[in-house]
User: Which sequence fits this backbone?
């Protein structure tokens, strides 16, 4: 069984402890040729804005997304269920690089495309019960950023304490342990003129029984 502790030990030089079993690692420029990879992903992934249910309202996501993964890695959030599209060549290249760095072969990835500063991701945690290795107390998310630099914020759910991480081209952020249970994260809108950014959040999803 994959252990989040083994990943933290492997990436020890990049670890920030957030307390209560929550931790993140940030490795700068971990992915090579990020420009070419970003272009190939935008070309080959079925990116689109999704309609999500937030309470009684249906809203269109202010970003384009695509869900890819191994067969059966169905992901459900905000009232929607997503069947995985197959892996593409650029996603496999990055997945393999992330595996070489973390020791984990992630089975799925959410691709997010932020076309400019108006696109964003609201406060949330990746705490769906199907996420592994063991939601809610041990969830591994490995996130690769390509393109424009954007602010990534973490906010403690109870204390409101925040951390700001500027994420840049080729950076690898890993969130592990209880980070999803204790903290929320977001990518806020910005009025600054920023170019397009693609983030890839690699995940472990328990397959649904057939
Ligand atoms: O774009 C990012 O860095 C954040 C993505 C994210 O929060 C998610 O996919 O759940």
Assistant:
């Amino acid at each position: 069984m994959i252990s989040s502790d083994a990943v933290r030990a492997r990436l020890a030089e990049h670890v920030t402890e957030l307390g209560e079993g929550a931790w993140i690692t940030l490795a700068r420029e971990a992915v090579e040729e990020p420009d070419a990879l970003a272009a190939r992903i935008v070309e080959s992934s079925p990116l689109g804005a999704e309609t999500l249910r937030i309470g009684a309202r249906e809203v269109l996501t202010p970003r384009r997304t695509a869900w890819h993964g191994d067969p059966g890695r169905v992901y459900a959030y905000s009232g929607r269920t997503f069947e995985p599209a197959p892996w593409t060549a650029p996603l496999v290249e990055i997945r393999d690089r992330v595996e070489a760095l973390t020791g984990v072969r992630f089975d799925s990835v959410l691709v997010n495309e932020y076309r400019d500063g108006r696109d964003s991701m609201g406060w949330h945690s990746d705490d769906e019960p199907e996420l592994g290795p063991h939601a809610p107390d041990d969830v591994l998310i490995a996130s690769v950023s390509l393109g424009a630099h954007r602010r990534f914020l973490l906010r403690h759910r109870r204390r409101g304490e925040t951390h700001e991480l500027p994420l840049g081209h080729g950076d690898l952020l890993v969130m592990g342990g209880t980070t999803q249970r204790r903290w929320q994260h977001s990518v806020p809108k910005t009025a600054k003129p920023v170019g397009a950014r693609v983030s890839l959040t690699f995940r472990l999803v328990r397959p649904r029984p057939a």
